[in-house]
Amino acid sequence: MIRVHVDRLVPGMVLARPIPNPSIPGRYLLQKDQEVPLSLVPRLKQWGIYEVWIRYPQLEFLEYLFDQDLEEQQRELYHRVRCNFERTMQNTGAVLDWQGFEEAVTGLMETLHRHRFASILQKLDAYDNYLMVHSTNVCYLGMLLGVELESYLIQQRRLKDPREAKDLRQLGLGLLLHDVGKVRIDPQVLNKPGRLTPEEMEHVRQHPVLGYEMVRGNVPPSSATVVLNHHQRWDGRGYPPRVDPATGEPLAPLRETQIPVFARIATVVDVFDAATTHRCYSAAKPPVRVLHEMRTVCRGMFDPVILEAFFKLIPPFPVGKVVRLSNGMEAAVVDFNPEDPYRPKVQALRTAEGHVLHDPSLHEFDLAIYRDLYIQEVDGQDITPYLPEDFWLYTPRPQHLVEAAPSAS
User: Fold this and answer.
1) What is the CATH number of domain 2-61?
2) What is the pTM (predicted TM-score) of this model?
3) Which residues of the chain have pLDDT under 70?
4) Residue 392 and residue 401: Cα distance in Å, rounded?
């Protein structure tokens, strides 16, 4: 099976995995082995579905890389968040189901520990509310990152018992609730498709404080600080501003290790998920571009240790994605290489001339070995500007990048 963008669906393509109904747990919009009607594409986009898994007989082994337990835990999280947040939006006096959140996070933690080496990164795709799915994905990505950072958590939380320091339940609860304050933000501002005015932006920037006021005393302090500080930046930028509670005088912003480590994890995964998810005011960017921008445009925002761990965890080219190689061949990504993330294993599907290769396994390339070959296009977009500079140390740089490079003079 392969991942196909809904805009690239053609008649005859058959689902390899079902498409869940985002509004009704346990129900599906389309079952697997059904042909996807092109007339359904606009509605799929409304539900936040921009990619679907399509049957490709020679690549059916990818189906076994999916973790069904993980998917069920994510759906459980999503529906708990959705029910609670919507109830709070409708009734400001409603009490959130704190125990239910903790139980759902514990279930996700146990699943991640059992299947920490799952090959396919599984963000939720079908959803009917961005805030709810973003909260769920941030929880999943942040806990996945927390598993990789256990030693760092013990080091950074050295006043805690090591077992408590690396306990992901408090991290997960803070991640799940990091944006809960947005239920107190005017929906017309929160969902505005255009640029916000300075006044509207200031209104939105109240959500960490509003959320902290909602969760304080109801969740562990380390979870509550994630809600308050997930927009604090490593270099001291960010919000909300700090003030002395006794005098009201402004205080210096938190920076570097002054920021709680759980909040530093939240910052990384929050930015990544927001940029790779379709929103009312911006299209999703491919992961390879977002990872590039996190290295460059966002320089100084993130804890370097956490960011490097994240780069080894998140594939720039997701498994199952159809790409075009620098030799013109069309190929599918079949494995992730965490030690060399931009050089995954691929299997070619078509020649440069467009001829179908009937046994892709005979045309498998480990791009970490075939260093003169690389991924050049994703969904018709040239992604070579987003490859890291050290990528070109052992690979000939394409001419258009050479011509675009600034002059030494």
Assistant:
1) 3.90.105
2) 0.90
3) 25, 115-120, 124-128, 280, 403-409
4) 11
